[in-house]
Amino acid sequence: MLVHSRAGRWAVCALFLVLFVPLFAVPLAVVGAASFATNWSGAFPSGPTGAHYAAATDADSLQALGTSLMTALAASLIALTAGSWAALAAASLRRRGRRFMDALFVLPVAVPSVVVGLSVLVAFSRPPVLLNGTRWIVILAHTVLVTAFAYQSVSAAIVRLDPVYEQAAAGLGARPAYVLWRIRLPLLLPSLTAAAGLCFALSMGELSATMMLYPPDWTPLPVQIFAATDRGSLFTGAAVAVVLMATTLLVLLGVSRIRTRASYR
Q: Fewest CB within 10 angstroms: 27, 100, 151, 194, which?
């Protein structure tokens, strides 16, 4: 910690709690409490029950959870591949070229996600590439939205790479492809796993663009949460939201373990 005095550390911790509890902890606690409640007419919920989790884990909800997982996994892998390739390519460009690439990849997150959903819907609703009404248009929209984060994460890691290792390998006669595969990518592995986790988490919670694009047979879990709350089933929606949060956290925990092992290589 940058603060060395005991009083300063206590002040920083107190400030953190003052900011963290109302902004992050309380909303999550409210959702968790609502998922076990039958009524909430006062300051605290009443009538504890686990019936909402029966609805949150029925066949439809589990299918929606699987849809979200497959969408997030596919979008994350595509975004990580495209974003990493673009970051590696941009690193070899001059300053203007890098700035153009940065602006190009940041553009999808600089506009509302509903605009991205509308643009994808308009672009792929007619031949020659007709994706409207299929799962692929949802995956494509998620990929567009999260690729910027993969690109930025890998670009920042490339700047911090020590060029000595690459220069030593090239001086010993290693080909560029070998240097990339055996030197650069292993050094970038912690950043790659972090970018993959970020892309996955963002895709799991994406709703705005998804609402414009999803077909009836490819309904992600955030859409089901919105539908439940829109019907007035707030407590059931809260239970489904808890399932979504728990699943996302479990996947991120696994990614974090991979990242930790990569950091100690």
A: 27
> What pLDDT, in 10s, does the model give residues 223-250?
999 999 999 889 999 999 999 999 999 9
Dihedrals phi, psi of 161, to nearest 5 degrees: -70, 140
What secondary structure does DSSP assign to 21-50, as a single string? IIIIIHHHHHHHHHTT-SB--SSS-BS--S
Instruction: Give the chain's length.
Output: 265
Structure-token match 């911090």, residue found: 160
Residue of 130, 128, 112 whose CA lies nearest to 211? 112
Task: Compute the distance between CA of residue 57 and CA of residue 244 in angstroms, rounded to an integer.
Answer: 11
Beta strands in 69-205 (DSSP E): none
- Find out whether 170 and 179 touch, Cβ atoms under 8 Å: yes
pTM of this structure: 0.87
Contact 109, 145 (CB under 8 A): yes
CA distance 186 to 197: 17
Radius of gyration from C-alpha coordinates of the chain: 22
74-113 confidence digits (pLDDT tens): 999 999 999 999 999 998 888 888 899 989 888 888 899 9
Spatial CA neighbour of 78 closest among 162, 140, 21: 140
Phi/psi at 75 (5° precision): -65, -40
Contact 21, 29 (CB under 8 A): no
Measure Cα distances from 173 to 25, 168, 176, 177, 178 in Å. 55, 9, 9, 12, 10
